[in-house]
Design a protein that fits this description.
The chain has about 290 residues and is α/β, with parallel strands linked by helices. It is built from 12 helices and 7 strands. It has a single domain, classed as 3-Layer(aba) Sandwich (Rossmann fold). The longest helix has 23 residues. The radius of gyration is 22 Å and the shape is globular. Bound molecules: guanosine-5'-triphosphate (GTP) and magnesium ion (MG).
Length: about 290
């Protein structure tokens, strides 16, 4: 691990993440020995193509100029149709790719934690054991995943665009609840002001008057300083703490049940069941009692 003034050992970090992701031997010990720091974790979510990567690129550029150490987690869309978008992400980030203070990691979004990767909590915990100033996560906000990202992040930035239309309408209810900061990107296009007004109106109705609504033009790095000012303030709310506790409870349960099942011989269970199921009085619930 490193101190604030030194360069983070990215090689060791990357290797540790891989060990944990692949559940290599002793990965549990690695996880148990982590000493995570209190690093702000900031999630960027929103509909596909809203400009999340472009905006993050601009935000990270400013922070790197200030010599900040940045970790970035890109949650890969699992659908092969999104492969292009992922490659696009990489390209847009490429301006900072070689910066010694930026660590980028992709995490597959497959997995059963609703939408987000099974391993994202572990990856974040490993990263939080290094001296980053900020950790960013980018994920496409569709369905469940945005709620999870809000549970993982201290601050959730929801990026919307004027033209996103119907798809956003459908998502908005979910996105409304999780946003700590709203960004209307592509404010160089028509209707940005109208969307800002409509959002502000909805926030007002739902009593969330202290949620900022910012406008940005990511491609020109406009509004980026204002966004950084907002995310520099820790926003952790009661709602966020709730989401975090739900997420961590689910995760803890899964770790516990996995550990309890570790030595369970499924083939043997099947062999016994194959024998016993032919008994006309076979009752599955009485049968499993012996294992409880
Ligand atoms: N006009 C305009 N175009 C923008 C702006 N920001 C991003 N774009 C463009 O929008 C497209 C999508 O940008 P991305 O940054 O890849 O969007 P994203 O939200 O990361 O996309 P996914 O990761 O695929 O969901 C790119 O062609 C960008 O150049 C902006 O402020 N104005
Ligand atoms: Mg992107």
């Amino acid at each position: 691990m490193s101190n604030k003034n030194s360069i983070i050992d990215f090689k060791t970090l990357a290797r540790t993440i891989s060990l944990v992701e692949n559940e290599a031997e002793n990965f549990e010990t690695i996880l148990q020995q982590l000493q995570p720091h209190d690093i702000p974790v900031i999630g960027f979510t929103g509909p596909p193509g809203a400009g999340k990567s472009t905006l993050l690129n601009a935000v990270i550029g400013v922070l790197l100029d200030e010599k900040k150490k940045i970790g970035l987690v890109l949650v890969d869309p699992s659908s092969p149709f999104n492969l292009g978008a992922l490659l696009g992400d990489r390209l847009r980030m490429s301006t900072h790719f070689t910066n010694e203070n930026l660590f980028i990691r992709s995490v597959a979004s497959r997995g059963s934690l609703g939408g987000l990767s099974d391993k994202i909590i572990e990856v974040l915990e490993v990263m939080r054991s290094y001296e980053f100033d900020y950790i960013f996560i980018e994920t496409v906000g569709v369905g469940q995943s945005e709620v999870e990202i809000a549970g993982l992040a201290d601050t959730t930035v929801v990026v919307l665009v004027p033209e996103s239309g119907d798809s956003v309408q459908a998502m908005k209810a979910g996105l409304m609840e999780i946003a700590d900061v709203f960004v209307i990107n592509k404010a160089d296009r028509a209707d940005a002001e109208a969307l800002a007004n409509s959002l502000q109106h909805q926030l007002h109705i739902s009593g969330r008057v202290n949620i900022p609504v910012l406008k940005t033009v990511a491609v020109e790095a406009k509004g980026v300083k204002e966004l950084i000012a907002e995310i520099s303030v820790r926003k952790e709310s009661m709602e966020n703490a709730n989401r975090k506790s739900i997420l961590l409870t689910e995760k803890a349960l899964r770790i516990i049940s996995k550990s309890k099942m570790k030595n369970f011989d499924k083939a043997e269970l099947r062999a016994i069941l194959t024998r016993e199921m032919n008994d006309p009085h076979f009752n599955l619930y009485s049968f499993v009692k012996q294992y409880l």
